[in-house]
Amino acid sequence: MRGYYIAGNWKMHKTVGEAVDLAGELVKRLARSGHRVMIAPPFTSLQAVGEKVRGTNILLGAQNMASAELGAHTGQISCLMLKDVGVSVVILGHSECRLLDGETNALINAKVKLALLHGLEVILCVGETLAEREAGLVEKIVVEQVEEGLRGVAPDRVGTVTIAYEPVWAIGTGKNATPQDAEAVHAVIRSTVARLYGAKAGEEMLIQYGGSVKPDNAAGLMAMKNIDGALVGGAALSADSFCAIVEFDAYQRAAG
């Protein structure tokens, strides 16, 4: 039984004070959650939020990291710095980093291996653009990103990687893949992991969906066989909406 893993990516939102307030509210409201929960505030808030969630059931995540441990890399944040402030999970390969910052599969793979080397868990993001979807390239793009992202990752480390499928055209647009569309791609990802690492690894891999996840569509997505959680963007900026997604089963019962 894989269970559910809900992660909140706050992106470039929240001052330190605002981030601490939101984290404190989540700590109170999700204390009894039976699902795995992570929040990834901006770098500037990591230490303060880390202190707020320390000893709770909420994991502290980072939105990205450098591909080197240290050195002359102006503006970069290393895995050593992240661990120092209590980060245990790092999001890598997010579509905004791929498209806006030009991160390649090779660079993302280097980050994945470095993060795992230092004991950080990884959420590896994969997904196609609208043009790639309309050209019938969804499976090709996603399989390539999974293969290249995991290249050289040892079998005994792949279990600390979660894959997040995020169709680029659905991020921050209000559009989202139907549960059936998302499920089809998740099944391809799971079979790819099984081909690379064996059936057991494929079955145990946690695969999140990301792309305009909201309280009113979370339960439908989570009902799919191969969807094991969500990487939440805008809806993670409000305690009400994020808690409703984390507790999607209870929210569905209350709404029904």
Task: Tag the structure with descriptive keywords.
256 residues; alpha/beta; TIM Barrel; eight-stranded parallel beta sheet; 12 helices
Write the layout of secondary structure elements.
Layout: E1 5-9, H1 16-29, E2 36-40, H2 46-53, E3 58-62, H3 79-84, E4 89-92, H4 95-100, H5 105-117, E5 121-126, H6 130-134, H7 138-149, E6 161-165, H8 179-197, H9 199-204, E7 207-209, H10 215-222, E8 229-232, H11 239-246, H12 248-255
Parallel strand pairs: 1-2, 1-8, 2-3, 3-4, 4-5, 5-6, 6-7
Q: How would you portray this structure in words?
A:
The chain is an alpha/beta fold. It has one domain: TIM Barrel (Alpha-Beta Barrel). It has twelve helices and eight strands. The chain has helices spanning 16-29, 46-53, 79-84, 95-100, 105-117, 130-134, 138-149, 179-197, 199-204, 215-222, 239-246, 248-255, and strands at 5-9, 36-40, 58-62, 89-92, 121-126, 161-165, 207-209, 229-232. It has an eight-stranded parallel β-sheet. Helix 1 (16-29) runs parallel beside helix 2 and helix 10 (215-222) runs parallel beside helix 11 (239-246). The longest helix has 19 residues, at 179-197. The radius of gyration is 17 Å and the shape is globular. The protein starts with a strand and ends with a helix. The mean pLDDT is 95.
